[in-house]
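Comment thread on ticket #2218

A.B. wrote:
> Attaching the input chain for the structure job we discussed in standup.
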Amino acid sequence: MQEKKITLPITKDIADSLRAGDYVYLTGTIYSARDAAHKRMTEALESGKELPFPIKDQTVYYLGPTPARKGQVIGSAGPTTASRMDKYTPELLKLGMIGMIGKGKRSEAVIESMKENHAVYFAAVGGAGALLSKCITKAEVIAYEDLGAEAVYKLEVKEFPVVVVIDNKGNDLYKR
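C.D. wrote:
> Ran it. Output below, let me know if you need it in another format.
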């Protein structure tokens, strides 16, 4: 296990260097999307439309933040259970998504797709949303505003703490 600082986006070489158990601090741009946004993105792809952000080499945080209080960039920003996005994930991985942040286990289909597409799954600490929000320096709704907390956000993060739970070789901390 190592501690690493990564400036986003994650490249294939960076993804290949990460191992399950590594502590990572992410700095740069990530996008948030939960169940409803994933459903809309899939529908957009099925109808030949583009996604609301360039998915290639991007990291998606499974997040539905609470409203920001006065003086805050964003409200509590804790992770959502990742398995809720599993039915949508292999298609997004094929399109080049390289990182995912959530909590909990992933399906075998997602893990196989991660190996094929050199992607990495990070866990953020559930229950620590207020602390995680302090690492988000900018938050902007960029799509599906009508979904409220489940809208797609473009987030700027600084030293956002995560753990590699599943690396792109299929090593899985939940199976140790």
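A.B. wrote:
> Thanks. Noting for the ticket: The chain has a mean pLDDT of 96.
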